[in-house]
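[SOLVED] Need 3D model of a two-part complex

Original post:
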Amino acid sequence: MSEKESKAKKISTESYKGVRDFYPAEMAVQNHIFNTWKQVVERFGYQEYNASVLEPAELYRAKSGEELVNEQTYTFTDRGDREVTLRPEMTPTVARMVAGKKRELSFPLRWYSIPNLFRYEQPQRGRLREHWQLNVDLFGAKSLQAEVEVISLAVEILRAFGLKDQQFAVRINNRKIVNFVMNEVLELSEDKAHALAKLIDRKAKMPASEFAEKVEALVGLKSDLFKELINSQNFENFISILPVPMRTYEGIVETKSVIENLEKLGITNVIFDQTLMRGFDYYTGTIFEIFDTNPDNRRSVFGGGRYDDLLAIFGQEKVPAVGFGAGDVVMKDLLETYGLLPAETSKTRLYIAIADDGATAFAQDLAQSLREAEVSVSLDYSGKKIGDQVKYADKNKIPFVTVIGADEVKSGKFKIKNMATGEEKVAIEKEIVEIVK
RNA sequence: GUGGCUAUAGUUUAGUGGUAAAACUCCGGUUUGUGGAACCGGUAUCGAGAGUCCGAUUCUCUCUAGCCACCCCA
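Solution:
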C-alpha cells in the first residue's frame, strides 16, 4: 500500500465478523460465568485441561466427514502444507488427549475445560463464529452413576448462578431407545431411520399436518404407532404404548434408573423427551439437554450424553465416557433474562486523589505499602480539581477515596471516604487496610 | 452458502435531492480539598466505494457489517 493510500484508508474499529470484543464490562460478565462454572465443577473433583485452538484437519474428517470440515470450519493450509483446522468443538481434542496417554492415566478421569471454539457460519443471535464452551467429561465409568453425576453437576451450576429449579428442566432420552424404536419397533432401514431422526428434530418448525405427511411417507404402515409414541406425554405412558416384551429393554431400564437416581438427589425437574435427538453421531446411551422453561428462550443451555465408542477412531480400546457442553452466549442470555448478572463493581478498593503536586511522592509511597498489604489501589495524576478526581472514582465504581495533600503529608492521618454512604473515617496508614476491606 | 430487513454523533433515535436535529453519555469550562446537580461550549467527511444529477446523507448498484429466517447445529 502506498503512503497516499494508507493515509486515505482508515482501518475499521469493528471486530472481525462473528467474533466479540470484550471491553472491561463484558469481560467482567465473562469472568463471572467462567468463575461460577469452575467453582462448581472443581467442587465435584474435576481437573482443568486445555489444548491449542489448532488441530490437524483429519481429526474432524475422521468423525464428521468432508462436508463439515470444508464448509463449517476454519480450515487452511499452513506454510508446511499441513491442513489445519481451528477447533470447532472440544470432544475430539479431549478424546485425542485421553487416547494418547491412555496407559499413563488412571481412570476414572474427571476433566473439564473452557475452550474457545470456531465455526464458519452465518452469525445470528446466540450463534457466533467464536464462542466459549464449558466442557465437562467423565471417562472410564460404565456405571449409570456417571450420567447421574454429570447431570446433577449441570443442575448445580444453574443453581449456583441463582436459578430456581422451576426456571429450567432437564430433558432426557437414550440413544438405545431411539435406535431400538427405529430398528425393532418400526423396522426401518438405516437411511430411513436417519431421515426420521432429522424429521423429529425439526418437528417444531413445521405445521402438524406437514409433519404427519412426512412421517407417513417414511414410516408407512406403522405410522400410527409412531405417532402415538411421539405424542406420549410422559415416560410411563411411552412405555405402556410399547409391546410388553419391549418394556424391559436396556435403554428403557437405563433411563428409568437415571431419572430415579436424580430424584433421590433432589433433582425432580427431569422430563423424558422422546423427541430429543442431539445430532446423530457419537452418542451411544443417555442423551440430555437442559432448557429454560421460559418459552421465549428455546435454545438449550446444556447438552450432552454418553459416548462409549469415541476412542476407537484412534485405534484404541473403547473407554466409556459421559460429558456435556455449555455455551457462554446462551448462558449469558439466560442470566440476563432472569436478571442474575451481578452489578458492576471495580476490583480497585481505594482511589487516591492528589490535591497538589508536592504530595505525589508521598501518595505513591502510601499506595505502595497498601499494595504490599494486598489492597488494590490506584492514583490520580491528572492534576484536576478534587471534585473531578472523586467523580472519576464514582464513575469507575471504586468504593473508597482518600485525598492526599499538604495536610495529610504533615499529619499522617487520612480521611477515607466511603463512596456508597458518603461517610468519612479518619485513619492512620495501618488502619486503612481494615476500613477498605 | 441462500433469501428478507437494516446502517445518521459514543448510545438511542429525528430528518431532508441543496452538506443535518434531539436526548443521554463523553471531553472542556463556570465554583482553587471532596462525587452523583445546574448552566455554557465541543464532538457526525449521515457504514465503505461507484453511478445518476447542476448538486446525494436522501435515488440506483456493488461491497461490508448487524438482525431475522433457511441450511446446519459438532
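Edit: Residues 90 and 299 of chain A are 20 Å apart (CA to CA).
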